[in-house]
Amino acid sequence: MSTPKIPEPGLLIISILSANWDAFWPDLLKALEERFGPADDICEPFAFDQTGYYDAELGTPITRRIVSFEKLHPLDDLADIKLFTNVLEKRYADGDNRVFNLDPGFITLQSLVLATGKKFSHRIYLKEGIWADLTLIWQKKQWVVFPWTFPDYAGEDMKSRLTKLRQSYKNTLSKPQT
User: Fold this and answer.
1) Mean pLDDT of the region 82-96
2) pLDDT at residue 79 tops 70
3) Alpha-carbon distance 85 to 127, whole Å?
4) pLDDT (average), residues 99-110
5) 150, 113 in Cβ contact below 8 A?
6) Among residues 42, 104, 124, 164, which is most buried (max CB within 10 A)?
7) Which Pfam families does the protein's record reference (predicted)?
8) Rounded to an integer, what distance in angstroms lies between the CA atom of residue 63 and that of residue 157?
9) Are strands 46-47 and 100-107 parallel, antiparallel or unpaired?
């Protein structure tokens, strides 16, 4: 018999896609920090050009920022975090079109799991219409992709950024808890 054990909390990251940062930044960052605590790392916007999936809704050219937060969060908070980011997307929307897309997820020592509202064969249902997407796993000191991994997360630039965040998370875990 296995004995249930609560896992270590994860590093919350939120990927933000937009073509119109002036419409909401830094107000969005303030709203995220009010909910999740101070940001730990905020990257400068970088190109999101692996797909045109969001072009009609968000405009072009789309860039991405990844924000991570100092406070680690319980892994079972993922659905609630996604529900909150959905509220923010609606709050800032221009009519029926979002101004930005928010994709929250957790980095752990083993994986990157993103939250989504879209079901698919490999996704695990969490609650209230939210699914967990196992996007990448950490194996042999590198990120490993799956056939379903989004092309933007499978690229070397993204994996390099995620490796940096994973190392920061690992360093946080190794610090004595106060």
Assistant:
1) 95
2) yes
3) 15
4) 98
5) no
6) 104
7) DUF4416
8) 14
9) unpaired
E-state strands within 27-84 = 39-42, 46-47, 63-69
- Give exposure, 84-120, as e/b (b: 16+ Cβ within 10 Å): bbbebeeebeeeeebbbbbbbbbbbeebbbbbbeeee
**159, pLDDT greater than 60:** yes
In which residue are the tokens 């360093």 written?
171
Q: Mind listing the pLDDT tens digit for each residue in 110-127?
A: 999 999 999 999 999 999
How much is the mean pLDDT over the chain? 96
Could you state, in order of their start, the residue ranges of all structural domains in the chain?
11-169
Judge contact between 110 and 142, C-beta under 8 A: no
